[in-house]
């Protein structure tokens, strides 16, 4: 009786403390982070239907679709400069001459989904028509054109005297239009991908409206940009869960100078922090390098990003070189863990410019049980690396390199394992003797 009463009390306490800060928008689309391709970083405004379609074909032939990259998203510059006499956005007559329906039909026929772009203000960032005051009309047009996803930008903000809304109101206009359209059309809502940049703290409110929100300004090409984004996201990784995701921006932007190890760290952090995974590649360079593809197609890492059972992100359990909770753009948190369908996932980041041995006690992670041993799977080597008891040391992690491990409970640790408590604070024998003093 007493035990039961205690259990009930305990679980209700747990329920309260685990309630998310605001419910995510569970509208049937975007439960998991979306994966795919976006035209912007490779082509800027130089896009056309041939490029988009060839990209779709390539995503299929390279095997990217098979591992989950199933969106081809068109960014800014697809339209004419002005709306039609009746007020609709018009697809660019030369560059999208066959019309958007033909294009999305062809994309869908390949087994891919199609994304389109607009802006919450008067114009897009490249000064094509924005959707402010045309939200319902444009949402309907995008759906009629056959698109599945809408990326929604933040340029050309109307004067305060016109808009009389903050960020929340400005983005809710299109969110409401999408929801209303889904109701009247009976079709699934457009997956709504907010691109309001980082300064507006969208992780506090974006989850009411969309399936993803950008957490930072546009990503840069080198390690400095990556470590800065990882640092910023380390403080808000709690905000990602099913139907709502911190979007850390595109993977492998531009012709940066990432090393192979930096690129692995990039992909691992984005995937395990449940960011949408959006790639770019250049048709003219006959695509991504073999190394890049090898990274982008790591199925064990993708499986964590697309975990159907656990929606939450990894979070830091120790910062490493700096004190915990340090805000440091060059040296973000180094020791991370999170739950997954198949066990506890760990990410170790070497933020130093030289190789480092990295050590952690298993129970530093909240998701590990004391007194148990764990089988270790290396998600980059794709090997089973024996059994861990109490702690793990990884030797010679390369500069800016990453280690990703999946630990599975493998039963009680061997009898006689010492010390009696891996975490010595307040470790006590039943007879009242403290062993940490
Ligand atoms: C699309 O762009 C490519 C590369 O610039 C060009 O070769 C092709 O002719 C263009 N196609 C159309 C339909 O504009
Ligand atoms: C390459 O990386 C170094 C070190 O991070 C950086 O200082 C430099 O600006 C980068 N160069 C380019 C072209 O991105
Ligand atoms: C869990 O393991 C199963 C079987 O190997 C695999 O299919 C699935 O993708 C794994 N899930 C995650 C989240 O790693
Ligand atoms: C970031 O951390 C490194 C390593 O501790 C330190 O050298 C550097 O001064 C820190 N930068 C800032 C801005 O605090
Ligand atoms: C796991 O084992 C493989 C194969 O021996 C090795 O390449 C890899 O570095 C090991 N991983 C760790 C984290 O030690
Ligand atoms: C790591 O765990 C082992 C038990 O497997 C223990 O003997 C050792 O003292 C631990 N190392 C550290 C540094 O805590
Ligand atoms: C109490 O526990 C400590 C630590 O386990 C042990 O060394 C000691 O012998 C115990 N004392 C008695 C009276 O059992």
UniProtKB/TrEMBL annotation:
Keywords, ordered alphabetically: Disulfide bond, Glycosidase, Hydrolase, Signal
Domain Alpha galactosidase C-terminal: residue ranges: 331-407
Catalytic activity: Hydrolysis of terminal, non-reducing alpha-D-galactose residues in alpha-D-galactosides, including galactose oligosaccharides, galactomannans and galactolipids
Entry superkingdom: Eukaryota
Signal peptide per UniProt: 1-24
GO MF term list: alpha-galactosidase activity
Gene Ontology process terms (BP): carbohydrate metabolic process
EC primary class: hydrolase
UniProt-listed Enzyme Commission number(s): 3.2.1.22
Keyword Signal attached: yes
Keyword check for Disulfide bond: yes
Record family assignment: Belongs to the glycosyl hydrolase 27 family.
Protein name: Alpha-galactosidase
Organism: Collybia nuda
